[in-house]
Amino acid sequence: MRKVSRAIRLKRLSDLRGIRASGLVSAGVLRMMEEWIRPGVSTAELDRLAEDYIRSHGGVPAFKGYRGFPATICSSVNEEIIHAIPSGRRVLREGDVITIDVGTVLNGYFSDTARTYFVGEGEPPEEVGRLLEGTESALWAGIRRMRTGGRLGEVSAAIEEELARFGLTVIRELTGHGVGFELHEPAPVVYNFGSPDEGPVLEDGLVIAIEPMASLGSGDIIPCSDGWTYKTRDGSLSAHFEHTVGLWQGEPVVLTDPDWEVGWSQDY
Ligand code: MG
Asked: 99, 102, 129, 213: least buried by Cβ within 10 Å?
């Protein structure tokens, strides 16, 4: 039997630069979606816009064809958590929430990022606002705990703690992952819950997708008959925020955040 390697594949600075370039294209898709997500638009239209954006920036959609996935984005609405396939029949309505998850391959480097949007004018209802704000805040709580010499469990524990602070339920069966040379690298698995003294010790050159998923109800999930979508068993709303994050010179570098100032210079 062939032994499958579970070792973390560390990246060099040149790789981090490549993943950053890829990450900016993925991030550009999410930023563009702010203009297009509104009542009346179909998820297939959003998918076409995303694919055009990535290709016009020299990239290739990383999800399209991945294990047979047919589209550029995953567009998961309301109780759908992840991996929903865009469709011309899925038209957004006022008050929906939609998660756009997107990945790019650029010059062989993979990036992966996601966020959940409220559909419609004005402020979302209180609990929807809490779901979105809390899940995004949990992502950043995890990112802030990344440090060279620390443990991955510190990141996981920080995410769990922050979700609890907002009264949200962790979707425990879905996790983050290593990324960069591939869309999903076998190691490490990035849990959204756990103890700070667990998990691998983090080293410079680590690149992971951190992606808390949470719901307003229970954390139980069910797979849908399309073979891709996961949704909450109780039909409650869910949210998902994700960044591709590297570790360099002891500090996290948020490779899919265009506003993040990367700390490296030509001198390294
Ligand atoms: Mg991911």
From this structure: 129
